[in-house]
Amino acid sequence: MMLEPSIDKLMQNINSKYTLVTLSARRARQMQETNKYLIENYDSEKYVGIALEEVNQGKLYYTVDEDAE
């Protein structure tokens, strides 16, 4: 079974697997609490899958806070 979106596609938007996992897990918890999504059409039935689809479509991303480093 092939997973969509693929890790290769996701890594084009988020350059770290650790960041990708952390970001999608946090977003999944947020969706579970609020029931609000950044995309209207999604294929996944699970929150983490929807979060990964949001990353793939460029709706979910992160920025680096230069002051925090």
Please give a handful of descriptors for the protein shown:
mainly alpha; Eukaryotic RPB6 RNA polymerase subunit; 51% helix; globular
Question: Describe it for me?
Answer:
The protein has one domain (7-64): RNA polymerase subunit, RPB6/omega (Eukaryotic RPB6 RNA polymerase subunit, Alpha-Beta Complex). The protein is built from three helices and no strands. Helix 2 (17-34) packs across helix 3 (47-56). The mean pLDDT is 90. The protein is globular and about 35 Å long. The chain has 69 residues and is mostly helical.
Main CATH class: Alpha Beta
| Largest sheet descriptor | none
The backbone outline, from C-alpha atoms, is globular
* N/C terminus separation: 40 Å
Low-confidence stretches: none
Task: Write the CATH homologous superfamily.
Answer: RNA polymerase subunit, RPB6/omega
The CATH architecture can be named as Alpha-Beta Complex
Kindly report the average pLDDT value: 90
- Bin the helical content: 40-55%
Strand content: under 5%
**What is the chain-wise order of helices and strands?**
HHH
Total of helices: 3
- CATH topology: the name is Eukaryotic RPB6 RNA polymerase subunit
Q: Tally of extended strands?
A: 0
Radius of gyration: 12 Å
Number of domains: 1
Oligomer: single chain
Structural class comes to: mainly alpha
